[in-house]
Design a protein that fits this description.
33% of the residues lie in helices and 17% in strands. The chain is an alpha+beta fold and 588 residues long. Strands 1, 2, 3, 8, 9, 10, 11, 12, 13, 14, 17, 18 and 19 form a 13-stranded antiparallel sheet that branches. The two termini are 19 Å apart.
Length: 588
């Protein structure tokens, strides 16, 4: 690979020490150059990743440092109270590996976790509670990745984020808006109110926000190599918070406690898993296997779309087939995907071209498949056949964050991490400075179809199904593209749309990311951004029977691809979530 041949030359250029910055670095949606690249939603976090690369760290070192920084600046999307999925490409072996850092339910959980008197709890009540909190997997993911592929210790990788939390960062409109959106529930917890609502108001745009408690927590986690979390003092504080949520005296909010135990933390593991692999028009598309549904559902949609020459279709023809492909893939996802430790998930069969072909023949050029539609049977695929009853996709949270990193040796990381809803459970661990997740609400609260096996019900130690889709595309062993997105179940459609736009439709990566999006997930209507709804394709699609609803924002992609002559091209959103931050070590 050409990247490896220029590594020695580039390394000679990277001798300057990292500069401290008192103000937020500028946002920048595209950067091209040598020496490695970082793309995330936040400029402070991307800058920290670049500085790690400048000091000789590799892609894994930079990914962990960037993720830790996002826990400071983007704490309502991700942090040490949550989990995620880490996909890594090793340039020497040309191998893709993954780490499953998904949260787990406590051992006390069963299928009735979110039922009261046999009735599912309202989602908002389940979310803002101790019941929704799973064992965090993000810190263990960092530890595993660094131990296996990194060059830094966990303590060293956390140090830049610790410093950022102490000195503070400039509050932008997105941070202010996220606090404002959650002000009512944040105000009902003493610890959350103290941190994010000083004087009863969200931190003002342009002010400096500091989180010394999180800085101390990072320091302790690094110093103890996570022993403090998975069985020690931080873990004890976390467990107490779940079992006795710090509700403000006099609050009328009903906050149910959870039953997470210190033993649940101490037994947690973030296992290495084989990635999913889909052959698509000559490319090898790697993703995350169950309990994520990202790899199987993106892969199935691509396999369905491989029946068409997408590059030769008109835009309405392309979008018609794209929408129908994800409708079918979600019907199958909802029926078959769950935690493989608890269910026999037919991953290989879901990704087979034979199964995809049996589903593709349902797509007609001038009409739509009625939705919600029934799943197919991947173990016994029959042409144009469905089995069982409809399995619609329920509404879920659309927050999370994604980062993409490459280094000068050609190693690449695609890493999606989350605390689930915007602000997670809404509960900050007192004295520790981080929000707890509400990941367990990703379980189905009750069977979707009584009498039909449901692989995504709660269970002891079980991981809820996820839609996170960190993806790396190879061509003959070399990286072509790495990407991912936040957005709940819309992650899957976002990644699929960007992949097909870039690989088939000839759009540059920045244009593919910026393009208006639609997100069909086996529902009667297809959510779409207003720019898509006001565009030229809607009348032709409506004539085929498509029905659209408005969605303000779908996804927020970051991506990296080779740019020739040993360079990397890093790309991020130009507008969504306030715009992202793409960086390279040596621009040019």
């Amino acid at each position: 690979m050409l990247l490896r041949t220029v590594a020695a030359v580039v390394s000679l250029l990277l001798v300057a020490p990292p500069a401290a910055f008192a103000e937020a670095p500028p946002r920048q949606p595209l950067a091209v150059g040598w020496g490695g690249a970082v793309s995330s939603v936040d400029p402070d976090a991307s800058q920290i990743g670049i500085e790690v690369l400048q000091r000789g760290g590799n892609a894994v070192d930079a990914a962990v440092a960037t993720a830790a920084a996002l826990g400071v600046t983007d704490p309502f999307s991700a942090g040490i109270g949550g989990g995620g999925f880490f996909v890594y490409y090793d340039a020497d072996s040309e191998k893709v590996s993954t780490i499953d850092g998904r949260e787990t339910a406590p051992m006390s959980a069963d299928a009735n976790l979110f039922l009261e008197n046999g009735t599912p709890l309202p989602f908002a009540e389940a979310m803002t509670s101790g019941l929704s909190v799973g064992v965090p997997g993000t810190p263990k993911t960092w530890q595993q990745a660094l131990k296996k592929w990194g060059t830094l210790s966990l303590e060293d990788a956390l140090e830049p984020a610790e410093e950022l939390a102490r000195r503070g960062f400039v509050v932008d409109a997105t941070f202010n808006g996220q606090v404002t959106n959650n002000a009512a529930r944040f105000a009902d917890f003493t610890s959350t109110r103290a941190l994010y609502l000083p004087n009863g108001q969200a931190p003002a745009v342009g002010s400096t926000f500091r989180n010394p408690e999180l800085a101390d927590t990072y320091h302790e986690l690094g110093r103890t190599n996570l022993r403090s979390l998975y069985g020690g003092a931080v873990g004890q504080d976390l467990v107490k918070t779940v079992q006795q949520p710090p509700v403000v005296p006099g609050s009328t909010r009903k906050v149910r406690p959870g039953n997470l135990q210190l033993s649940d933390l101490s037994r947690y593991e973030a296992p290495f898993r084989q990635p999913t692999k889909t052959k698509y028009n000559g490319f090898d598309v790697y993703g995350m296997a169950p309990p994520s549904s990202g790899g199987t559902t993106v892969g199935e949609a691509l396999n369905i779309l491989e029946s068409y020459d997408l590059g030769k279709l008109t835009e309405p023809e392309y979008f018609h087939r794209f929408i129908e492909s994800t409708k079918l893939a979600f019907a199958d996802r909802n029926r078959w995907v769950g935690d493989p430790a608890f269910s026999d998930v037919p991953t290989r069969e879901l990704l087979s071209q034979r199964f995809a072909n049996s589903r593709a023949c349902l797509i007609k050029p001038d009409s739509v498949i009625k939705a919600p539609t029934a799943p197919g049977d991947p173990r016994k695929p029959a042409p144009c056949a469905s089995s069982g009853v409809e399995a619609p996709t329920r509404v879920d949270a659309e927050r999370t964050t994604h980062l993409t990193v490459a280094d000068r040796w050609g190693n690449v990381v695609a890493y999606t991490l989350t605390i689930e809803a915007e602000g997670g459970s809404g509960i900050v661990v007192p004295g520790r400075g981080f929000l707890l997740n509400n990941e367990l609400t990703d379980f189905n609260f009750a069977p979707v179809n009584p009498g039909v096996p449901d692989p995504n019900l709660p269970g002891p130690g079980k991981r809820p199904r996820s839609s996170m889709s960190p993806t790396i595309v190879l061509d003959d062993g070399d990286v072509v593209l790495a990407l991912g997105s936040p957005g709940g179940a819309t992650i899957i459609t976002t990644v699929t749309q960007v992949l097909t736009s870039r690989l088939d439709r000839g759009l540059g990566i920045q244009d593919a990311i910026a393009a208006p999006r639609v997100s069909q997930r086996n529902s009667a209507a297809t959510p779409a951004e207003k720019e898509f709804l006001s565009g030229p394709n809607v009348p032709a699609l409506e004539a085929k029977g498509h029905v659209f609803t408005a969605n303000a924002e779908i996804g927020a992609v970051t991506a990296i691809e080779p740019a020739g002559r040993g360079r990397w091209r890093a790309a991020a959103e130009p507008v969504r979530r306030g715009g992202g931050a793409a960086r390279v070590v040596y621009p040019g």
